Every structure is written in C-alpha cells, then in structure tokens.
Amino acid sequence: MFHSAAVKLTVWYLAIIMALSIGTSFALYHTSSNDLEHNSQRQIGYFGGLLDPGSANDFATLRFKQLNEDRDHLKANLIFFNLLVLVSGGAAAYALARRTLEPIENALEAQTRFTSDASHELRTPLTAMQTENEVALRNSALTKNQAVEILKSNLEEVGKLKALSEGLLALANAGGNEDLDNPVELKTVAAQAEERVAKISQLKKIQITNSVGDLIVKGNQQNLVDLVVILLDNAIKYSAPGSEVTISSKRKDKRAGIIVTDQGQGINSSDLPHIFDRFYRADNSRSKQKAEGYGLGLAIAKKIADLHNATIEVKSAPNKGSSFSVYLPLAN
Ligand code: ADP
C-alpha cells in the first residue's frame, strides 16, 4: 500500500519539477533565441553598410545559418538539461515521497501492532471463560457448588478484562487535553498518590516512607498523581511483604525529581530497555501469578512524563530493588 502511495507521490512531485523545468526552458529558449536573432541582425546591418552588396548578402546568409545552428545547439542543451532533471528529479522525488510517508507508515504500523497486542491480551481471559462455560454446559450432573465455582472464576476473568480495558483507556487518555502548565507541589502529589495505594500497601504490610520536599513543578496535578501511583503500585507489587518503599525528592539543575525506591525483586538488565513498552512484562513478573498486570502501567507513566517534558530514569538490581526517578521542569 505504501509502495504504491510512494510511487503516486513521486509521479506528482516529478510532474511539478518537470512542469517548472520545461516551463523555464521554454522561457529561456524564447528570450535567448530572440537575443541571438537581434545580435545577428545588428551585425548584418552594421557590415551591410561596410561591404559591397554581394558580400553583404553572403554575410547575411552566413549569419542566418549560424543563427539556426546556435538555436539548434541551445535546443539540444536544454533537452539534455531536462533529461538530467527528469532522472535526478525522479530519484529526488522518490526519496522525498518516502520521507513524507515514513512517519505515517510508522504511526500506522504502531497502531496495527497495538491493536493486535490488545486483541491478544483480550482473547486470553475470553478463551478461559468460554472453555469453562462450555465444559460446564456439557456436564449434565453439574452441582450447585460447581456452578458457583464457575461463576466465581468467570467473575475473576471479567475483573481482568475490566482492568485491561481500564488500562487501555487510561493509556489512550493519559494527559489528553489537560492543562499541563500549572504550578504543582510535589508534596501534594506524593501525599495523594500515597493515599491511593494505602490499601494495597497495608494488605502487603509494606511501609511507605515519604520524605518529599517543598518543590513546585510545572504540570497537571492529577496526571502527576496518576504517574506516581503507577510507580508506587509497581514498587508494592514487585516487593516482598514487610519490605519498605520510599518516596523522596531531589533538585537537579532546573528540574525536580520525585523518586520511588523499593527493595523488591528488581529488574534484569536485559528487561530494562523494554519495560516502558506497551504490554511488556518481564519474565519473572509473568511467571509469578501473584503480580497481576498487563504491562500497561509504565507505558502510561512514560506517556504522562513525555507530555510533561519530563524524563524517567530507572536504576535496578535483581533481588536488591529498583528506583524510578521522574524529573520534571521546576515551576520557576
Ligand atoms: P505491569 O506491572 O502491569 O506488568 P508495568 O508496565 O507497570 O506493567 O511494568 C512493566 C514490567 O516492568 C513489569 O511487568 C515488571 O516486570 C517490571 N517492573 C516495573 N516496576 C517494577 C519494580 N518496581 N520492580 C520490579 N519490576 C518492575
């Protein structure tokens, strides 16, 4: 599809280049040919006055012959020039067409990949529910207890589907149409994020230590809370019960960082370059059934950070813990 679009675009670009080149060549030929004719006539007039009529006639014939030769020469040069423009312009037009289409092609490819990844993730819980229900329907001796178990399991799968669709929605909407230039206190962001994860941290008996200082950044408070919730949620999810999670801040040049550190399972260096990709989950988090998720959290966090002109740095050592730092522009 993109190849034929590139060819079509090349033809259009080349048509424009050739129209300009041929138009200019015609104008050039016309003015140069008039100049040549004007010069010959001036010479014929001048020498006609000095020479006898016979020689003047011969001179005029010679000059007209030369004029025609000069015109033919000019024509040949212009044809050669236009052929050169056609060949080099064709190559340049194709390169330009590819360059024009490249970002569109990349965006479409990313969209297709996203749709296929999302469908794949949606299919897993749906297939599980379908199989369970089909088996149950075939069992004529199904007891009430068995039916209740199946309904519970179905509800669990529905919960996963809901979480996945909420994640997808959050990814699509993250930072959209929001005012991203408000002064926001990092302390408030940290406190609100801490409050939102309080229940899960208590359930896992994980202590959160908050030492965020008085720093004011530029951004959207709600989006920044969402970002820190994702980091805290992961820190809790990938840590052993009873361990500690800290949330602190740091000033670096004209930026302020908010840092979430855990003492959890850490991330292998081979996984680090991919953890911000959509649907990416490190192998250890996939195999550990306890750590639920779809690999969307950090993709959402990255999208929010990008919209805020912020950077996210990760330091992690397997079995020692991880530290995620988000550096945001200071408000003043
Ligand atoms: P999810 O947590 O839903 O799998 P994320 O996008 O939030 O998705 O994280 C992607 C992957 O990065 C996780 O599957 C996990 O392997 C790894 N990861 C993220 N945060 C941490 C952390 N604090 N400690 C260990 N691994 C982490």
Assembly of the depicted chains: single chain
Terminal residue distance: 49 Å
| CA radius of gyration | 37 Å
- Specify the biggest β-sheet: 5 strands, mixed
Into which percent range does the helicity of residues fall? 55-70%
Q: Which blocks of ≥5 consecutive residues have pLDDT under 50?
A: none
Helix count from the secondary structure assignment = 8
Strand order of the largest sheet: 2-4-5-7-6
Tell how many strands the DSSP assignment holds. 7
Which terms would index this structure?
single chain, 332 residues, alpha+beta, five-stranded mixed beta sheet, two-stranded antiparallel ribbon, elongated, binds adenosine-5'-diphosphate
Description of the structure:
The protein is of the alpha+beta class. 65% of the residues lie in helices and 14% in strands. α4 packs across α6 and α6 runs antiparallel to α8 (297-307). The chain has eight helices and seven strands. 23% of the residues are buried. The strands form two sheets. It has a five-stranded mixed beta sheet with strand order 2-4-5-7-6. It has a two-stranded antiparallel ribbon with strand order 1-3. Bound molecules: adenosine-5'-diphosphate. Adenosine-5'-diphosphate binds at residues 234-235, 238, 262, 264-267, 275, 280-282, 285, 293-299, 322.
In short:
The chain is an alpha+beta fold. It has helices at 2-50, 53-138, 144-173, 186-196, 198-203, 221-237, 283-287, 297-307, and strands at 182-185, 207-210, 216-219, 244-252, 255-262, 311-317, 321-329.
